[in-house]
């Protein structure tokens, strides 16, 4: 789906505002809403921009509604515990359905209520929502988890995939495909939910990831051995609208071909959710060497294996007219698993690694992407044992698991830990019987969350797991509080630990 042309996301006014840093956060202006028809605003811009004394910020604030900051944590009554705080925080992150929408807003309207992460993130985010839903279920909001799953089915059916978030400027990319997990969760929460409601959307999402149209092959890559594995991608290789200034600066001095390649790889990294990390850097250190589209990621392919595995299971019980039979998806899952074992499993190190297409070799970076085969159930017992040893030796720190062992200053590298990766590591280790290590990670992560809450009264986006008295860093914006997936995983882990699970 093509991105609509809006004055706050494209054109000369947009570029002038971003280039001149009228607002310190590049995302601020793209979330503004025109007060009048875009044609009227553009005419006013052309008429006034060269006039003496013209002020760009005043013009923007005159012609656009600024983003809703939402309610703040100050609205929540004081809590004695982190767990109590999470329960009280949910309503602040709830948003009503916005099916009517505004034709000139960058917000994509959704037919059901939903949950936002918090802070500058005023819209849904795809993979965040699964981990948020785990906490919603723990706190008696199963209806909201179902609403969000239905919103994603709506997006798949209307735009062809679940975008990075429900904004027009996110339409050219998705995020890690957790929709199948969300459907699975909803099925576990209510006997009144039927897989038949969601199967067409799951099939359509699988087709999106397997689309090979275009000269570059997009997200599905045919390998010399005849297998198909997947990579992250973006269909619009230009500076990200929400980070236009940062991308344009990084590309300074590059020729047109190099700029296109850089922008696509930056955007593909955003589709991965890991923006940014040494996983995607050719030199392992610098964003300027990013090569995301050269890499077949272990996490993405494990998620797609799970999607194919569940499609085989669900179609076996609920055939869909015109869709491939269950056996088709079972064969795809087996082929993907064999290819991953051949290309991504490092027998010597005992861990799954990403695979670099250009180098035709595994990358040098180990990361918590290695836990996805355990989380999805794709790994063998021996692979799980090797992964557990690697986690304990290279990732386990005072406050939980570091994302990688590498210090680059990027937010998806050490010393940062992120809630979804803790959850997947813990659940994956439990699945294969490594309960002691899983419980250690659980306790350390919960204690780190509680320590930051005791100091700041906040649930934050990410945590410094090497020094739990310190603050996590990296990223293109200040540390955000709120925070959807941190709340969800804290609630789910806290309750499971106290139930003795």
Please write out the topology:
Blueprint: H1 12-19, H2 26-30, E1 33-34, H3 38-48, H4 56-63, E2 64-65, H5 82-93, E3 94-95, E4 114-115, H6 126-138, H7 142-159, H8 179-189, H9 195-209, E5 220-222, E6 228-230, H10 244-250, H11 256-272, E7 295-296, H12 298-317, H13 326-343, E8 345-346, E9 351-352, E10 355-356, E11 361-362, H14 372-376, H15 381-394, E12 396-397, E13 400-401, E14 416-417, H16 419-431, H17 435-456, E15 463-464, H18 484-498
Antiparallel strand pairs: 1-2, 3-4, 5-6, 7-10, 8-9, 10-11, 12-13, 14-15
- Give the helix level as a range of percent: 40-55%
- Spatial order of strands in the largest sheet: 7-10-11
Number of strands: 15
Approximately how much beta-strand content do the residues carry?
5-15%
Distance between the termini: 44 Å
Structural class: mainly alpha
Radius of gyration, CA atoms, in whole angstroms: 22 Å
Query: Which runs of at least 5 residues are low in confidence (pLDDT < 50)?
Result: none
Shape: globular
Mean pLDDT: 94
Largest sheet: 3 strands, antiparallel
């Amino acid at each position: 789906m093509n991105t609509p042309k809006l004055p706050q996301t494209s054109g000369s006014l947009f570029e002038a505002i971003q280039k001149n840093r009228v607002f310190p956060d590049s995302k601020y202006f793209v979330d503004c809403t025109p007060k009048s028809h875009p044609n009227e605003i553009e005419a006013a811009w052309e008429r006034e921009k060269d006039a003496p004394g013209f002020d760009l910020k005043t013009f923007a604030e005159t012609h656009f509604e600024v983003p809703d900051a939402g309610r703040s944590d100050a609205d929540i009554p004081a809590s004695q515990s982190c767990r109590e705080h999470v329960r009280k925080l949910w309503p602040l992150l709830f948003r009503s359905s916005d099916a009517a929408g505004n034709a000139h807003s960058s917000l994509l309207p959704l037919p059901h209520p939903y949950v936002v992460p918090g802070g500058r993130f005023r819209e849904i985010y795809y993979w965040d929502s699964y981990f948020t839903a785990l906490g919603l279920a723990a706190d008696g909001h199963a209806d909201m988890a179902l609403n969000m799953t239905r919103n994603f089915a709506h997006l798949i059916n209307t735009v062809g995939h679940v975008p990075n978030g429900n904004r027009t400027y996110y339409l050219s990319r998705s995020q890690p495909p957790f929709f199948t997990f969300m459907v699975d969760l909803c099925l576990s929460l209510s006997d009144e939910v039927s897989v038949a409601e969601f199967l067409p959307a799951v099939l359509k999402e699988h087709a999106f990831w397997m689309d090979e149209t275009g000269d570059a092959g997009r997200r599905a890559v045919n390998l010399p051995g005849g297998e198909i594995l997947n990579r992250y991608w973006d269909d619009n290789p230009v500076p990200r609208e929400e980070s236009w200034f940062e991308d344009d600066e990084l590309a300074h001095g590059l020729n047109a071909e190099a700029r296109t390649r850089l922008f696509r790889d930056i955007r593909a990294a955003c589709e991965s959710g890991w923006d940014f990390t040494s996983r995607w850097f050719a030199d392992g250190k610098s964003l300027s060497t990013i090569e995301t589209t050269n890499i077949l990621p272990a996490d993405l392919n494990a998620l797609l294996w799970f999607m194919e595995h569940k499609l085989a299971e669900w179609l076996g019980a609920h055939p869909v007219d015109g869709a491939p039979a269950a056996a088709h998806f079972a064969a795809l899952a087996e082929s993907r698993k064999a290819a991953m074992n051949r290309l991504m499993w490092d027998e010597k190190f005992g861990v799954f690694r990403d695979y670099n297409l250009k180098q035709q070799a595994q990358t040098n970076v180990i990361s918590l992407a290695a836990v996805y085969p355990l989380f999805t159930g794709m790994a063998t017992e021996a692979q799980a044992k090797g992964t557990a040893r690697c986690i304990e030796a290279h990732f386990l720190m005072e406050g939980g698991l570091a994302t990688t062992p590498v210090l680059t200053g990027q937010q998806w590298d050490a010393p940062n830990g992120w809630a979804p990766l803790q959850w997947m590591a813990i659940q994956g280790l439990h699945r294969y019987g490594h309960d002691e290590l899983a419980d250690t990670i659980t306790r350390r992560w919960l204690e780190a969350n509680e320590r930051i809450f005791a100091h700041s009264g906040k649930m934050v986006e990410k945590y410094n797991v090497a020094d739990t008295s310190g603050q996590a860093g990296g990223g293109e914006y200040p540390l955000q509080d709120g925070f959807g997936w941190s709340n969800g995983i804290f609630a789910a882990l806290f309750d499971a630990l106290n139930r003795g699970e």
